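Hey,
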Amino acid sequence: MGKNKKKSNLLREIQQLETASRSEDEKQESSFRRFEQKASSQGMKSFRAKKGQLKMSAIMHDFLAPYTRDSPTLGEYQNILPLALVAWNTALMPPERHNVLLNSFIQVALPDSDPIENHNLRQILEAMIQDKLDNFAEYDRAITDYDVYEDDGEIRLSIASCVTESSEPD
């Protein structure tokens, strides 16, 4: 009887893991469907990373690592992501456009700020742009949307991206 109880407990644990895995798959599917509908409404086409291909969410986690703590909170991600996306997408543009794009973003993000705040924000964005150019140059997808949420104490990130003019679709 002891063997059957161990088998029963093991079977229950396996079923719980399968249920948790299905639940995560359903959340990712729901997030992707939301992005797909939004992209379609804007005349864009969405697609998923192919098997073995890195997902933009994983790439963005790596990109954000130097700018967050080891275990960032949802609030930290919500604060840093807009800056990271501006820096990422700006880095995809010709260098002569960077200054204009940064000025426009800073003006919108900090409309009533003092020059020191503007300078500090610009320094952060410029550091992120340089990081993108130095360490993530092979990824040339523009980020069009994102979803960040917490699930069982873990930060989850979904990224919608599109192929830039210099990219070739796979």
